[in-house]
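I keep forgetting this: the sequence line spells out the residues, with the fold written below as integer tokens. I include a record here:
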Amino acid sequence: MVVEVAPELQTQRRAVGQRIREWRLRRELSQAEVARTAGITQASLSNYESGKRDMPLSSLLGVTGALNVGLGDVLDVPDVIVVRDSALGKAVCQLVQRPEFPRING
């Protein structure tokens, strides 16, 4: 079964793949090295870089970690912050839950 993908999504998928490839080459890493560190196959990374396949968030986080770049750099969104279940994440949650914490409307 072939699933049609909207042209704008194909363009976005290719652009993300291209940025991943650019960062990989800047870091002078092979696809095999990045894939191994990210916990995916080299074939999967190749498909993501070429825009042939959608990349699950877990794989995207693994690849950005392997490349030591921010998620925003790969997605071309400069203000992306990913807070995982970490000390920083817990601190941010505690701060946000405090009633005296000032809300910034942006």
In short: The radius of gyration is 17 Å. Helices lie at 7-26, 31-38, 42-50, 57-67, 71-75, 87-97. The domain at 7-77 is CATH 1.10.260.40 (434 Repressor (Amino-terminal Domain)).
